[in-house]
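Ligand: fe (ii) ion. Inputs:
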Amino acid sequence: MHTAPFLSPMQLAAYERDGYLIIPNFFSRELADRLRQRAEEICQGERNEAGIFSTTEQLQHTDEWFLESGDKVRLFLEAEAEPGMPRRVNKIGHALHALDEVFAAFSMDHRLAGFAKSLGFELAVVLQSMYIFKPPRVGGEVSPHQDGTFLNTEPLSVTGFWFAVDDATLENGCLWALPGGHHEPLRERFKRNGKGGCEMETLMETPLPEEGYVPLEAKSGTLVILHGQLPHKSYPNRSEQPRNAYTLHVIEGNFNYPKDNWLQRKTPAPVWEF
Ligand code: FE2
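Predicted complex:
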């Protein structure tokens, strides 16, 4: 048995208040370099298999490549490219944590299980991983959303674990979040439509607030935990610096996971053992 380091009462209070929690120095520069290098290797190996991912055009680009990626390692391209250049990889998804040994070792860090337990998880199912490149100049924006839109449980439980591989700054498109916005009801649900595609279901007509977001600048090695109802977004990367990040999304395994969620796996997802 190991002793998992739980979140402190002060950290939990901040998470309850803001809907997010920033944990600096969670992992080393060396480990960040290793993740970055491994992500590059994966890109080299799968150069010919690329889909497209742009949240601003989510509905148009939903296709089998995306829908079948829940238990695979697949590349998704930026919508935008520089003149005369091939499109850059936007992200790798969605089962790096289950299938790639470097990312699996990182993702199964026992400290993460301790954090999840502190947040109230009883069965922490690590459902999804993404490695996000946000490359210089063409890294796309991510429009304001709540992660619960994309991974639904009844009741809602999805929680994001966002890891800064590079320093995330105002210039290269850091996260922005709405403090306290996790009390906002879920606005939309992205779900399978039974016809081989997906659709966005409107749950509440009132749009997410447009004002009040704060930048979550983060040094390499930082972990940011994000509540599944917290509105967040990021701006395009117009700088010369990449903004590599890695994310995990965790759900409560004891809750119902509707079959119309876009992400369906043929085998069970990894679990953080407490
Ligand atoms: Fe998100």
